[in-house]
Each structure stands twice: as structure tokens, then as C-alpha cells.
UniProtKB/TrEMBL annotation:
Entries under Pfam families matching the protein: DUF4031, NUDIX
Cofactor (UniProt): Mg(2+)
Family: Belongs to the Nudix hydrolase family.
Residue span, Nudix hydrolase domain: 117-252
Name of the protein: DUF4031 domain-containing protein
GO molecular function: hydrolase activity
Keywords: Hydrolase
Lineage, top ranks: Bacteria, Bacillati, Actinomycetota, Actinomycetes, Micrococcales
Length: 257
């Protein structure tokens, strides 16, 4: 087991940065980062960004200095590398145990651009009202709370699917152009009967900010049996143990929260 760090050569935000990785496990990486005093916001899904001024301290804490190509090679050989587009930020890689009895390995990512529509099988809308409260529904099939959303129908665009699901599950009518892409989830088959082919493996996350406080809701179909407006703390209680929570927290957590 080793923690590897490359020289601070990557320039961003007026500073130079190194990349800290583990060649064994993300858990080991997180544990080392905590011991070294690295902030959680520096985590990028498969590595920590380390500012130049912290480089020497991280090396002194036990990270082994290597060249950048060795960092990339270690991530690839360990299977820990998280693929992402330029500008996207990795949040977490998690195992999802699904209602049909299968499981998937899911990469949770932040990103302000929509992903390739051809690969999107599902769209979810994170609705926030003028007071900062959140809209959740209780799924009959999943037997759990979560933001409104669901699978695309044949011929639908991703945005069309998102506003249709929002309307069917909550009664709210939204302009598709008002949806703001904030992240996505990428599913990979774990070999237990799940069906996540590379060509249809993405869930698109949108955010919708409303100008009013807690508008009235209504259930139009029976795939959800409750709809609620909740505070941030209530959202944490209802959804904080679900596999997708890290990306919701990353894009929704109130400033200073």
C-alpha cells in the first residue's frame, strides 16, 4: 500500500497543485488525507488536489513523491481511476443495491454541462423553493424518499423526461429550459444480473429553483405515495443514507451548512 503524490505543476485558480492518490483503496486515501489535514473539498473522486504550499507537509506525512505518469498508472492499475470530462468533479464511487436485487458500481459526479443524451436512461430534478426548502417524493417501488425523477420514455429528450416525471410525481409544471444541469451518476454492472451497458448508463441530475415558497403539490400517478417539502435537516434525515447522497449533498448543501 502506498500514497503517491506528483509535483505541483497543475495550474488552476492562480495556484499550482499536486495530485495525491492511493494505489490500493479510496478508504486509505481518505484516512491519510484526514491525518494530513487536507480539506474534504479537495477530493476529486479518485484523488485529492493538494496546493503547492502543502506539498512538503504531505510528503513529510508519508506520501511518496513520484512523477505524474506514475500517479496515472497507479490509478489505472488499481481500478480506482474515475473517468470525467474536463471541468467535472468526482464526488464518490459507491455500491448501489437496487430494488430488483441487483447491484451496481456508481460514480457520482458534479458537472455544469449535460452529458451525452444517447447514454442517459434517467433524469432527476432537485427542486429548491425560494426559502431553500427541498421537494421529495416517496417511491412505492424503491420504498424510499428521494427527489422526483425517472426513466425516459421512447422518443423523449432528457429534459422532456425530467419535466414529465416532475409533473407526474408532484403536479408541478416546469419549463424544460429552466432546468440547470448540476451533476450525473454513471452506473457499471457488477456482474450479478444488472443491466448497465456502457451505451445507456447515465443518470442526469438537474436543479430547479422556484421563485415561490412551497407551492402546492399533487400526485398524478401511483408510483409515488407521498410528496413533501422538507428543510435541509429533514432532507438529510430522509435521504442521507442512500447511495446517491454524496452528490446531492455536494450540489445542494446550503452555504455555511
Amino acid at each position: 500500500m502506498a500514497l503517491l503524490i506528483d509535483p505541483p505543476r497543475f495550474e488552476a485558480h492562480g495556484r499550482r497543485w499536486s495530485h495525491l492518490v492511493s494505489d490500493t483503496s479510496i478508504e486509505e486515501l481518505h484516512a491519510f488525507a484526514r491525518r494530513a489535514g487536507l480539506p474534504a473539498w479537495g477530493y476529486e473522486g479518485d484523488h485529492y488536489d493538494v496546493p503547492e504550499e502543502r506539498y512538503a507537509a504531505v510528503v513529510a506525512a508519508g506520501a511518496r513523491p513520484v512523477e505524474g505518469r506514475e500517479v496515472v498508472r497507479a490509478l489505472r492499475s488499481s481500478g480506482l481511476r474515475m473517468r470525467k470530462r474536463k471541468g467535472d468533479r468526482g464526488v464518490a464511487r459507491v455500491r448501489a443495491d437496487l430494488p430488483d436485487g441487483t447491484s451496481a458500481l456508481v460514480d457520482l459526479l458534479r458537472g455544469g454541462r449535460e452529458v451525452d443524451e444517447r447514454r442517459v436512461f434517467c433524469a432527476v430534478v432537485l427542486v429548491v423553493d425560494a426559502g431553500g426548502d427541498h421537494l421529495v417524493v416517496h417511491s412505492v417501488r424503491r420504498r424510499q424518499w428521494g427527489p422526483p425523477g425517472g426513466e425516459r420514455d421512447p422518443g423523449e429528450t432528457v429534459r422532456e423526461a425530467a419535466v414529465r416525471e416532475l409533473h407526474e410525481e408532484t403536479g408541478l409544471v416546469a419549463d424544460p429550459t429552466a432546468l440547470v444541469p448540476v451533476g450525473y451518476e454513471r452506473f457499471a454492472d457488477l456482474g450479478d444480473g444488472g443491466t448497465w451497458p456502457p451505451g445507456r448508463d447515465l443518470l442526469q441530475l438537474y436543479r430547479l429553483d422556484l421563485p415561490e415558497r412551497r407551492p402546492a403539490t399533487a400526485r398524478l400517478l401511483d408510483d409515488v405515495d407521498d410528496v413533501r417539502w422538507v428543510t435541509w435537516d429533514e432532507l438529510v434525515t430522509l435521504c442521507g443514507d442512500d447511495f446517491y447522497w454524496p452528490v446531492l449533498e455536494a450540489v445542494l448543501r446550503p452555504r455555511g451548512g
